[in-house]
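Sample 3 of the quickstart, ligand 5,10-Methenyltetrahydrofolate:
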Amino acid sequence: MAAQLIDGAALSRLWRARLSERVTALKARGTLPGLAVILVGDNPASQVYVRNKVKACQEVGIHSVLETYPASLTEDALLARVRALNADPAIHGILVQLPLPAHIDAQRVIETIAPEKDVDGFHVANAGALMVGRPGFWPCTPYGCMKMLEHIGCDPCGKHAVVIGRSNIVGKPMALMLLQANATVTICHSATADLAHHTRQADIVVAAVGKRNVLTADMVKPGAVVIDVGMNRDEAGKLCGDVDFEGVRQVAGWITPVPGGVGPMTITMLLLNTVEAAERAAR
Ligand SMILES: NC(=O)C1=CN([C@@H]2O[C@H](COP(=O)(O)OP(=O)(O)OC[C@H]3O[C@@H](n4cnc5c(N)ncnc54)[C@H](OP(=O)(O)O)[C@@H]3O)[C@@H](O)[C@H]2O)C=CC1
Ligand SMILES: Nc1nc(=O)c2c([nH]1)NC[C@@H]1CN(c3ccc(C(=O)N[C@@H](CCC(=O)O)C(=O)O)cc3)C=[N+]21
Ligand SMILES: [Mg+2]
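Result:
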């Protein structure tokens, strides 16, 4: 029997409807949630993502400000913009789209964002909060994956979760969230000796690598939950994930599609973090 689909677009609609209500309640108390999005350079993928984020804000009533700069923008000028937004009471969330041009130190920019406005959850203070289990902001992509598990009634407690990838924005926080939810967690990466050996034991697999067909049917335990974070293009230029979708869906119990899976949920969690930031500021 083929796997059931985890529909990230549908789950996003559900969450966005709930968020609209929270925005309405905030407005009634005199707070209009505001998100500032900064885009530097003309990376076409970034332009699409940023446009989607601004559109999503409109959908739930969040005020959004998009600032676009040429790739020649200096690091100092960018840091000055971030500091101005830190001080702007109309802005509750700040997102600097990655990647940044090579002459700008991305980590330095992220550390300049006030942690209470870091709705990406990339600041070291928020990474630390996740690490020790204190309130902060969780990175949107793994956060969205956790919401998808919850939605299908998959409680990670006692399950073996295998995360493929260990980046600071996806793989590592994903592993920490699963650990916090009492899964037994294995983290695989480019130096992992036998990836299939690990994934075959997994009740939950999260693929966050950025390479097509990293996970194939022979690597998956029957009935496993498979979450595909990857955003790649096939030879025809079509969007695809890290998972061999057609093969793996024959074996898995649940699977996320690309597009329409983790991507929309990432944006929805950005909205959630922004609403949460505004609610905290209004307290
Ligand atoms: N849907 C969404 O909302 C989002 C999607 N993405 C997509 O997710 C993917 C991952 O993003 P990101 O984490 O930023 O990517 P990174 O390139 O930062 O990290 C990739 C990770 O994969 C590991 N890796 C590389 N090759 C292999 C391999 N053959 N086997 C096992 N592990 C491997 C790397 O290992 P090592 O550490 O050893 O180098 C690294 O840890 C990309 O496709 C990206 O576009 C990202 C963010 C949001
Ligand atoms: N500061 C920062 N924060 C990020 O969260 C961030 C970032 N930089 N840089 C790039 C990555 C990537 N990312 C995606 C978000 C949504 C989709 C998404 O909506 N995908 C759609 C398809 C989009 C399309 O058609 O291209 C889907 O999967 O259905 C994809 C990728 C956020 N990122
Ligand atoms: Mg990356």
